[in-house]
Design goal:
The protein is an alpha/beta fold and 323 residues long. It has ten helices and ten strands. Helix 2 links the parallel strand 3 and strand 4.
Length: 323
């Protein structure tokens, strides 16, 4: 298997970011679910949207110049998007990532021309964030932190995706009842929810967290929060990021990595879309809410990233299915 590597690195290549397809998930029989296929973006994930938006804003504000270096911390998808957008625009990029996420993520980031720095796995995103900040602090004026978790332009970028979702559903003659979206930096959920609630104020917005690192779920249920190492990449960074607008999240549901992976395999088999386990997490909860709503209204969700970023995981999973 090969991971998504765009063939061109020009400003024109950036025009392929966004405007991804949206389609009904045919395997859902009880109720109706529509998924936004964000794995069709150039680097195979939804993160192309915010990085293009954030870096373009830095350019308009005169914060970056030719030869500068863009730096950010990531669990993989953001690092690939940072590398792609920076290269298309003529900047260097440094991505800082915890060790042991997936080898495909490391391969993709390096193949896109970025320098990749790995930090201890046990400290997860916290250590990667601290390392990225130290790099920027040591190189004032030339190195710039994009800061996806705290940058409000992250969530703003996903308002456009929310508009795309709304337009697609209206073309299909669908009434939206609920949005289901996983929470990592919180920008995706917050931006989409803001746009959809502006169009349909009564919809339910359901955030999805991984059981091993669910800070919003813990907060709302008056439970102690503990971050545990987990494999559901893109979820559960260990804290509630500043980009998470909790007022836009009506409910929070939790999922396991194991169940999310099984659902992702079903998506590949039954729907013909090879996506990552985080997409499986979204569909797990979307199917549940589609059952609640039945035929009254549809559920919208997101397929975040391409399954090729998880090749080794899927090889192991397919082998286990065959036993």
């Amino acid at each position: 298997m090969t991971i998504p590597i765009p063939a061109e690195y020009t400003p024109e290549a950036l025009s392929r970011v966004g405007k991804t397809p949206m389609a009904r998930v045919s395997s859902v029989k009880e109720g109706t679910v529509f998924a936004k296929f964000e794995h069709y973006n150039p680097t195979g994930s939804h993160k192309d949207r915010p990085y293009l938006h954030m870096i373009s804003a830095m350019e308009r504000a005169g914060q970056v110049k030719e030869g500068d270096v863009l730096v950010d911390y990531t669990t993989g998808n953001g690092g690939a998007s940072l590398a792609f957008v920076a290269r298309c625009k003529g900047y260097r990029a440094i991505a800082v990532m915890p060790r042991g996420i997936t080898p495909e993520r490391e391969e993709q980031i390096r193949a896109l021309g970025a320098e990749l720095i790995l930090t201890p796995r046990e400290d997860y995103v916290k250590a990667a964030r601290q390392k990225a900040q130290r790099i920027v602090d040591a190189n004032p004026g030339t190195h710039h932190l994009v800061n996806q978790s705290d940058n409000p332009l992250n969530a703003e970028a996903f308002e456009e995706m929310g508009q795309e979702i709304a337009d697609s559903l209206e073309r299909e003659g669908q009434k939206l009842g609920a949005l289901v979206c996983g929470i990592g930096t919180g920008g995706t959920m917050s931006g989409i929810a803001k746009a959809l609630k502006a169009r349909w104020p009564d919809i339910k917005t359901i955030g999805v967290e991984v059981v091993d690192s669910a800070p919003i779920f813990a907060k709302r249920n008056d439970l102690p929060f503990h971050h545990r190492d987990h494999r559901l990449v893109g979820f559960g960074a260990g804290a509630i990021a500043k980009n998470t607008n909790e007022d836009l999240i009506d409910r929070v549901e939790i999922v396991s990595y194991e169940d999310s992976l099984k659902m992702a395999l079903r998506i590949a088999i039954e729907d013909g879309q090879l996506v990552g386990p985080s997409s499986g997490a979204n569909l797990l909860i979307a199917r549940k809410w589609a059952g609640f709503l039945n035929s009254q209204a549809c559920v919208a969700t997101v397929f975040f990233d391409d399954g090729f970023k998880y090749s080794e995981i899927y090889k192991e999973a397919w082998a286990q299915r065959g036993k």
